[in-house]
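Blinded run. Sample ID left blank on purpose so nobody reads anything into the name before looking at the predicted structure. Input follows.
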Amino acid sequence: MILLQLAVDGLLLGAVYALFSSGLTLIWGMMNVVNFAHGDFVMLAMYVAFFAFTLLKVGPVFFVPLAAVTLFVLGVIVYLGLVRHVMRGPMLAQILSTFGLALFLRYSALWAFSANFVSLPDGLVGGNYDLGGIRLSASHLLAGATALVLTLGMHLMLTRTDLGSRMLAVSEDRVAAALIGIRADPMQALAWGLGAGATGVAGGLIALFFYVSPEVGNSFTLLAFVTVALGGFGSVPGALIAGLAIGVIESFSAYWLGPATKDVVVFALFVVLLWVRPQGLLGRA
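Blinded prediction complete.
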């Protein structure tokens, strides 16, 4: 029963990992741009959730969509104001520009909100439920279920809709897509908006059970890159599988080896897998 409890907890947390990582893999798949500010987008979404609750006294039904819309708009602004210009330059310019954006967002948050840790109150969405001996936290259950549905929805949007077909066409060949009447800039701006919006939802959900600080984006950035690399760059299903796997691995390793070692186990398995299969689980060689 303990092992089953650990597996369920890991899957719920892994679904949230998959959601904000799917935004990173969408951007990579569309433009081959490495966004080092991805974790700081999650951090901003967590602050949106915190201040929406603190100032407006609203719950996750309101502040999660608010965080998603806020980060969607930020993603579009970042693409139009920064990314589309540096895309014409070398990869180093893209890396340095998004790394600089990450530092700007992080230190702006330090200046505006201070370095103090804040959090939403426990039990904001209910207490715990007992399901056949398995205890489920309402906040974790809400976060995991919502993240899983939205990640699957993003995959279906990309593979089953006309809009998704247009976005994939731009990712395959920008010039060829333009020749058949698909404008690349709106599609890529939308990709950045959706990728950032995914971090908005994930950040709003994570804020239900995780502390908020300007430095929290560091760990989420690294976790997103590990998840995307494991699943395969550009693959949303791969990000989902990798996110769920990482959540379960963290849960078991924290129980057996201690919370301080869970990241060591994840990164060690990450290195081994990339040694055996460099393109990730579902990535193309």
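Unblinding after everyone has recorded impressions. The beta strands are 128-131, 134-137.
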